[in-house]
Design brief:
The chain is α/β, with parallel strands linked by helices. It folds into four domains: 150 residues, Vaccinia Virus protein VP39 (Rossmann fold, 3-Layer(aba) Sandwich); 93 residues, no CATH class; 70 residues, no CATH class; 92 residues, Serine Threonine Protein Phosphatase 5, Tetratricopeptide repeat (Alpha Horseshoe), CATH 1.25.40.10. 54% of the residues lie in helices and 12% in strands.
Length: 423
């Protein structure tokens, strides 16, 4: 059996024609990342002018789904916009805008355009080999054509099944992907890079499973569900502790521990790794009954303090999820200050810094808040911290502000909030 995915109004003989939006000639309605076919049952998948409509995240999940349904050695053909050639051609042909961005119709807008190197890399990472690339033109439109074959292995089969379960259980929602979904995707890509056929052994898998328990216990539960029976029987102790970790919001507790530890500007990775080390010790205690060392942070996890409300939200323990919380606190702080709620703003700026020691807009605003109170000494301390982590494109503006204060006493000019941007 051969599949023509995202067929639109173009029927292809000898294929089962599927589309999620256009029913003109489609024989079945199906999402690209959720196909109604058994594992290893399809000979060929054709996806012509489809992936640019899916977006990055949905494309990665779709590739793994196509890997799941294809037979070993089965063929995948992907045709998409030649992004680089289209960009170069825009100066001469403005009509190429539609080729690049799509049309404003359901299912016809382009969510993401891949360049050749990027798509090749993703295809290889999602279990395909023998990549052949062809550049061609269809009706004066630049096209990239990729032809690859499924490479079957225990690791690839596990990863394809895991992706399928993640969507089924709702851990990632491809229809309205949020920061949390991309956070989980980054972890899945880390998992894929570490889970080669050579390393698909139970002892190595224990380490990967432990990292998954720290990141998100629910993901670890799905990993166990996808494993061969001989693996599952040797990892049953992990299955026993997962419900407790989910119930107790383990990632949120780790986030609280990270939040409590004092961090110098720019040193959050060191603290983050110390918390992860403590989490591994705690898991060793839960799973293998290895006693906790008094000198580590692990006993603090065991105490399980009451979580503040703002830290009950994170479902994963990662620097990205903590930075997202920091950005939210910072944005609320600026809004509070603009509305005259200075005490609330002060607390939120300090919270943002505890969650992300590189939150330079928070340092910057705390410096300005101290100028309002005529506390120049404290303002200088916060300006110094802001300077340590400020990105290069804002260095001149911050330098000018500090210089104006020192040389010209321009206090009033800076006694107002400094607006932030997502960084």
């Amino acid at each position: 059996m051969k599949l023509n995915l995202g067929c639109g109004p173009f029927f292809k003989k000898g294929y089962v024609n599927l589309d999620a939006f256009d029913s003109t000639v489609a024989q079945k309605k199906a999402l690209a990342w959720r196909l109604p076919y058994r594992n290893s049952s399809i000979e060929e998948v054709l996806a012509s002018q489809l992936v640019e409509h899916l977006g990055y995240l949905a494309t990665v999940f779709s590739f793994w789904e196509w890997h799941r349904v294809l037979k070993n050695g089965g063929k995948l053909i992907v045709e998409t916009v030649d992004f680089q050639k289209t960009i170069r051609g825009l100066e001469k042909d403005k009509n190429l805008k539609h080729w690049l961005f799509g049309k404003e119709k359901p299912g016809m807008t382009h969510q993401y355009c891949f360049d050749q190197d990027e798509l090749q890399k993703i295809l290889k990472a999602t279990g395909f080999s023998e990549v052949k690339v062809q550049k061609k033109t269809i009706l004066d439109k630049p096209v990239l054509r990729f032809e690859v074959a499924k490479k079957e292995s225990p690791g690839n089969n596990f990863l394809a099944r895991l992706r399928q379960l993640i969507l089924k259980k709702g851990l990632i929602d491809l229809k309205r992907a949020a920061n949390l979904d991309f956070d989980r995707e980054a972890f899945l890509e880390w998992l894929e890079n570490n889970l080669t056929q050579k390393n698909f052994k139970v002892n190595y898998f224990k380490d990967l499973l432990r990292e998954s328990l720290i990141f998100d216990p629910r993901l670890a539960a799905l990993m166990l569900e996808c494993l061969p029976l001989e693996f599952s029987s040797q990892l049953k102790n992990y299955g026993r502790v997962i419900p407790k970790l989910v119930e107790k919001k383990f990632p949120a507790y780790l986030g609280y521990l990270f939040y409590r530890i004092p961090k110098a500007a720019g040193f959050e990775k060191i603290v983050f790794n110390r918390v992860k080390k403590a989490a591994r010790e705690y898991l060793n205690f839960l799973v293998d009954k290895i006693p906790l060392e008094k000198s580590s942070f692990a006993p603090l996890i065991y105490q399980r303090p009451n979580l503040p409300s703002f830290l009950q939200r994170p479902e994963t323990f990662s620097l990205e999820s903590l930075r997202d919380l920091s950005f939210l606190a910072e944005s609320k702080a600026i809004a509070a200050w603009c509305q005259g709620k200075k005490k609330t703003a002060l607390g939120l700026f300090k919270r943002a810094i505890k969650l992300h020691s590189g939150a330079f807009f928070s340092y910057w605003n705390l410096a300005r808040m101290n100028l309002v109170k005529n506390n120049l000494y404290q303002a200088i301390i916060y300006y110094e911290k802001a300077w340590e982590v400020v990105p290069p494109d804002l260095e001149k503006e911050l330098e000018k502000e500090i210089g104006g204060l020192v040389r010209n006493n321009q206090f009033k000019k800076y006694c107002q909030p400094k607006e932030n941007v997502y960084y």
